[in-house]
Specification:
Blueprint: E1 4-10, H1 12-22, E2 27-30, H2 37-42, E3 49-52, H3 56-70, E4 75-79, H4 80-86, H5 88-97, E5 101-107, H6 123-128, E6 133-136, H7 140-155, E7 161-167, H8 168-172, E8 176-180, H9 192-203, E9 209-213, H10 220-233, E10 236-239, E11 246-248, E12 256-257, H11 262-269, E13 274-278, E14 302-305, H12 313-323, H13 348-358, E15 363-368, H14 376-380, E16 386-390, H15 399-409, E17 425-430, H16 431-434, H17 440-446, E18 451-457, H18 462-470, H19 478-482, H20 493-499, E19 504-507, H21 510-522, E20 527-532, H22 539-551, H23 557-567
Parallel strand pairs: 2-3, 2-4, 4-5, 5-7, 6-7, 9-10, 9-13, 10-12, 13-14, 15-16, 15-17, 17-18, 18-20, 19-20
Antiparallel strand pairs: 1-8, 11-16
Helix pairs in contact: 1-7, 3-5, 3-15, 9-12, 10-12, 13-21, 18-22
Bound molecules: thiamine diphosphate (TPP) and magnesium ion.
Amino acid sequence: MSHRMSKGKSNGAKALIKTLTNAGIDTCFTNPGTSEMHFVAALDSSDMRAVLCLFEGVATGAADGYARIANKPAATLLHLGCGLGNGLANLHNARKARVPMVNIIGDHAIYHKQYDAPLESDIVTVARNVSGWIRTSSTTEQVGADAAEAIEVAQKSPQQISTLILPADVSWGGGGVAVDADLTPVTESASGTVVSQLADILLSRGKKTAILLGRRVLLEEGLIAASKIAEKTGAKLFTEVFPTRLERGAGLPNVERIAYLSEMASVQLSGYEHLIIIDSAEPVSFFAYPGKQSYLVPKKCTVHHLVNPDQDALGSIHALVEAVAATDVEPKLQPADRPKLPTGKLNASKVCEAVGALMPDNAIISDEAQTSGLKLPISTAGAPRHDVLTLTGGAIGQGLPVAVGAAIAGKNTDGNDTNGKHRSVITLVGDGSAMYTIQSLWTMVNENLDVTVIVLNNRSYAILNIELERVGAEGAGPKAKSQLDLSKTEIDFVSVAKGMGMPAETATTAEEFNEALARAIREPGPHLIDAIVPSEYEGLKLKVLPHLLGAMSKIPSPLAKALKKKLAP
Ligand SMILES: Cc1ncc(C[n+]2csc(CCOP(=O)(O)OP(=O)(O)O)c2C)c(N)n1
Ligand SMILES: [Mg+2]
C-alpha cells in the first residue's frame, strides 16, 4: 500500500492520532493506563473526541455501535493484554458484525519487556481471536504508516478489526510522521455469470426460492432492491437472525427475520429448493442439541451466494434487480401502524407495544432484550423509520455499550446527525445482560447521551431456563436452577442508575411504563426504566415449549409455520 507522508514531525502518539483523524477516525473510546499516557497527552493537540469508558467491554462495544451507525471505524485505546482481554467479548460481537474498528493497545516500552513486569503479557495471542490484522509498531518513524495500514484494512471490504500495539517508547519517541491512509473504495461486483444464473433461478417460477439478506443489504437501498426482486419473482425474503444494522418501519420493506430457535428456523426454511444468500452467513443453529440439525438449510435446498464479503453487495443486488427486469416494479412497503398503548399489569409484550407506540422518528434501537424482546419486531413494524442493532455474536453485555456508540455516532456536537435529524437511542436489555457492562450508564451520563435504557427485569437468566429444557440435560434440581436465578438477591436498577447520576424510575404497570417512556423520550439526556416483568416462559408454558419445538419437524409444514408464527410472530 502506498502512503503519503505529511511534513510535521512529532512524537509517535501525535503522529498516530493525526493519522487517525486524517482518515476521518475522530472518535476514540478509551480506558487508558500508564503505557498509554503519551497518547492521552496528545489528545489535547488533536481533533480526536475521546470518550472515557469505565470497563474495556464498554469501550469495544461502543466502538462497534459507533461503526454500525457512522459506517466508519472508531478507535479504542486499551491497556495492554489485560485491558484488551476485558474488551474481548464485544470485540467478538464486532467481528461477527463485520464492522470496522481500529484498536490501539498500549504496551510496555520495548526494552522493558524482557523483565516480565507485572502487566507484561502476550497481547498478540489475545488480539488474534478477533483481529484480521495485528501489528506491533517497532519504531516511532513507522507508527504513522502502521496506523494507516490498520485503518485501510479495517475500512475496506470485508470490513474488520485491526489491532495496533503501541509500545510506550515508540509512543513517546521523536520523529513520528502522520500518514494519509488510502481509503479508495473497492467496487468489484458479483460476476455477470453469477448474476444471470441467479436471475434464471429466480425467474423459473416452478422452483420455490428464498433470499436471505444480511449485513450490507439491510438498509433502505438494499431492502427496496430485494423487495423489487421478491415482488417480481415470488421469492420469499428473510434477514439473518442477528443483523448488524437493520432499517425498519413505515415506508420500508418489512422482512421476516430467521428465528433464534433452530427448530423455528428450520420451519421457516422448509420447502425451499433454492436459497440465495446475499451478504450473510449460511443459517446454522446457535448450538448443537442432541438429535437436532446444526445446519439449517433443508437437505434438498441448493445454496447460492450472490457476493463474497470482498465484493460490493449493493452494486450486485442492483445488478440482480436489472437481470430479473424488476427495475420498475413497486417494492412492497410497510404501512404506518402503531400498537395501542398497553394497560394493566406490566409484562414484556406490553413493554414492546409501548415502545412501538411511542418511539420517535429516526430512532436507533439497540436490542438485547433476549426472551423479553420476542414481540419487539411485530410491535415496531409500522412505527416510524428506525434502525435496529442486534447481538451479532451472541456474547451478552453488548446492548448498553452499543447504545453508547450509536448515540455518539447519531449525534454530532450540536445535537444533530449529519442529515440534520436528531437520533435518539432506545435500548432494551435483559437484567442479566445489563449487569455485564452496567458501567455503560456512567458514560451515557458523562457524555450526556440521549439514550433511554429499558431494563427488562424478570429477575432471571430466563433464556437459559428454556435452554436447560431444550438440551435435554438430566437431573437439574435446585442447585442447577439457582445458577439461572436472579431473584434471591434482587437488583435495584433505579439505585444503580442513580448511583451513576442517571435519572431512573421503576414501572410495574403498563400505565407507569408508558408515562416513564414518554418522559424519557421527551427529555433530552439519558434515562433508565426498570421494567419489572415476569419471564415470558414460566411454569407450564416453559415445560410445554420444548415439546412444541420438537413437534415442529414432525407436523405438516403449513401447520408448523402457523405454530412458529404463534410462538414468535
Ligand atoms: C459472554 C456471555 N456469557 C454468557 C452467556 C450465556 N447467556 C446467554 S443469555 C444469558 C442470560 C440472559 O439473561 P437476561 O439478559 O436477563 O435475559 P432473559 O434470558 O432473562 O430474557 C446468559 C448468561 C453469553 N451468551 N455470553
Ligand atoms: Mg432476565
